[in-house]
């Protein structure tokens, strides 16, 4: 059986880390006898926007919908296209139209990667953020009144649905159930955001009834971010709304020092549409073009993609390979962000060789 | 001239730290010859709710509006009253009705307080979060449809006004102007929350024109929380919406290890209504009743209150006093959270004695 993979590098360092992501992916495919058909797309990039006046061709949905997965770099080049246009015209469309309602992001202290937190070592921090990925605070409903005057009012709605919330909670509970600690933390802000958030808390309670073995706690987002810094060892699976999940899944990797290397999976658990795998780092205009971006986020995303496609062993081999290369700590291989003076390519090649 | 101070201890450790806050306040008043008239109120507490079925008496506005300042402990006792009821029925009313549109919170590494971040020492981290405090994500507009069914939809609106945003930006720019580094960071999420947030960015640009000496940068909230952990030394004054400011002003103190001792000022800069001063920590049901809560948040809030009332010297004397007591590190004086085995009262008395 052949897996059809749509490859979309995007902008900035997306274009630089993608070749290394593919190198690792193909190495793992060779070793485990996995048949991949890669198809490359230049849309969903600001270059494409410059040429066509839009981020995607009109038939993008048709072009992508039969892929088994989308392997995605990073989108955004604010110098030429404002972020809300480039992102709402690409990534956020994919998440929504392909109903990738789970955004799954591991936060893990890795060997050889320095954490900004004092006194933490590999094993101490190892949790997942499960983020609702299609609705909530990322709505397209709202607008302005009395525009341009002193009376100007700007309104944006947060929209949550029972369908949307229950299904991501179910995913999070299912995941917590498979983990040794069986612990689920829900992030809300029910004291301040007093309509949507207390209702989310109720949905968590209702879902929890079906998972008697999972222990559940709840924090307001403000103190939860504080606890990510003070007690990252408390967490196992953290479930959150679109915005809160966005915040926590940058903050978590920041606490482990892995924000430059963290992966993410935008999953359509029903399998109706392709899921999308991308590094958490964005297009990073500040370091783009220098060939020094760390490719591990892209490579780790390849591992998550292979696991999603049913190849646990191949995914694990990729993770083992980059953990080994990081542990060795050869400065001629590693990129500057992890203490070396190598390049995107030296690090990518070393990992692929190890696979 | 006599300053009329309304004293509201609230719930939980609010009731325990308030006496020490008052001890410090009165010591500073004596030393600097400041005339205070304290008036005590038992409302805005869950005990009051239990007795009266509401958090506040009907005439609370009349009772408080002529105070020169409100000295506030902490509200909330979720075991008996859900947080969204106790908070919307008290603190959030005060902020709104008294138009305390600035919430000002210092994040500062203190001598003798252990930071969870590696390799940071006093002086490295010293910034303010300026939070919009009356509108934005903390709206009371929204509701449910198809309630209790599978089609359930829950909507809550974020409401921003030009008046509301411009005035807090002005406050933040003015503050940045007085600081040696003259740096202002604005927190938004314009790529995801694409109606309100890009508009906030525009208002920052428009206001910046009047402050050519202030250098301005902008981060999306996700990467900003990451940078609080990775590069807290980057920040000087950070301005944010109600929700983002709430998050950043818990996360900032968490990074400095001071979440248990951070103060905050809810300011009505126009002076039309009383401003309110409170510790950032809440009512902390988990340690309430044991007499071990750290009173420095309350004491530091007293310092901010005195400064607001025009007594810079008295405010500074309080800050100097608790910094000195922390530096000394006497374990018989300090509370457990800062490494001692003293009590709320031993620490409060030591600080008052020093003033
Ligand atoms: C108690 C709660 C409503 C409040 C807020 O979110 O504003 C608190 O977290 C704060 O920061 O003062
Ligand atoms: C680029 C942006 C729209 C996106 C998001 O907020 O979802 C990114 O931050 C992410 O976390 O994938």
TrEMBL record, chains A, B:
<comment type="similarity">
    <text>Belongs to the isocitrate and isopropylmalate dehydrogenases family.</text>
</comment>
<protein>
    <recommendedName>
        <fullName>D-malate dehydrogenase (decarboxylating)</fullName>
        <ecNumber>1.1.1.83</ecNumber>
    </recommendedName>
</protein>
<keyword id="KW-0560">Oxidoreductase</keyword>
<keyword id="KW-0479">Metal-binding</keyword>
<dbReference type="InterPro" id="IPR024084">
    <property type="entry name" value="IsoPropMal-DH-like_dom"/>
</dbReference>
<dbReference type="GO" id="GO:0046553">
    <property type="term" value="F:D-malate dehydrogenase (decarboxylating) (NAD+) activity"/>
</dbReference>
<dbReference type="GO" id="GO:0051287">
    <property type="term" value="F:NAD binding"/>
</dbReference>
<dbReference type="Pfam" id="PF00180">
    <property type="entry name" value="Iso_dh"/>
</dbReference>
<keyword id="KW-0520">NAD</keyword>
<dbReference type="InterPro" id="IPR019818">
    <property type="entry name" value="IsoCit/isopropylmalate_DH_CS"/>
</dbReference>
<feature type="domain" description="Isopropylmalate dehydrogenase-like">
    <location>
        <begin position="4"/>
        <end position="351"/>
    </location>
</feature>
<dbReference type="InterPro" id="IPR011829">
    <property type="entry name" value="TTC_DH"/>
</dbReference>
<dbReference type="GO" id="GO:0000287">
    <property type="term" value="F:magnesium ion binding"/>
</dbReference>
<keyword id="KW-0464">Manganese</keyword>
<dbReference type="InterPro" id="IPR050501">
    <property type="entry name" value="ICDH/IPMDH"/>
</dbReference>
């Amino acid at each position: 059986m052949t897996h059809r993979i749509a490859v979309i590098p995007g902008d900035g360092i997306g274009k630089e880390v993608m070749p290394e992501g593919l190198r690792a992916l193909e190495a793992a495919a060779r070793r485990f006898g996995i048949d991949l058909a890669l198809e490359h797309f230049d849309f969903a990039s600001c270059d494409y926007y410059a040429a066509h006046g839009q981020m995607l061709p009109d038939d993008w949905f048709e072009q992508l919908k039969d892929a088994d997965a989308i392997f995605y770099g990073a989108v955004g080049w604010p110098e030429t296209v404002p972020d809300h246009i480039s992102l709402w015209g690409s990534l956020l469309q994919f998440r929504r139209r392909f109903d990738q309602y789970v955004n799954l992001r591991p936060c893990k202290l890795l060997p050889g990667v320095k954490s900004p937190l004092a006194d933490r070592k590999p094993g101490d921090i190892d949790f997942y953020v499960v983020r609702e990925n299609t609705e909530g605070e990322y709505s397209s409903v709202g607008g302005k009144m009395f525009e341009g005057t002193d009376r100007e009012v700007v309104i944006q709605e947060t929209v949550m649905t029972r369908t949307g919330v229950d299904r991501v909670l179910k995913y999070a509970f299912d995941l917590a159930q498979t983990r040794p600690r069986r612990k689920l933390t829900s992030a809300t802000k029910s004291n301040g955001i007093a309509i949507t958030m207390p209702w989310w808390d109720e949905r968590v309670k209702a879902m929890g009834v079906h998972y008697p073995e999972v222990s559940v706690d709840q924090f307001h987002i403000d103190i939860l971010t504080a606890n990510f810094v003070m007690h990252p060892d408390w967490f196992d699976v953290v479930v959150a709304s679109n915005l809160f999940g966005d915040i926590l899944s940058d903050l978590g990797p920041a606490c482990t020092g892995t924000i430059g290397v963290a992966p993410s999976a935008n999953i359509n658990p029903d399998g109706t549409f392709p899921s999308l795998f991308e590094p958490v780092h964005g297009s990073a205009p500040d370091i783009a073009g220098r060939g020094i971006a760390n490719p591990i986020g892209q490579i780790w995303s390849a591992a998550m993609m292979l696991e999603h496609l049913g190849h646990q062993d191949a995914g694990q081999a990729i993770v083992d390979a980059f953990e080994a290369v990081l542990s060795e700590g050869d400065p001629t291989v590693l990129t500057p962000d992890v203490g070396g003076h190598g390049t995107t390519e030296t690090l990518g090649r070393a990992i692929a060789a190890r696979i």
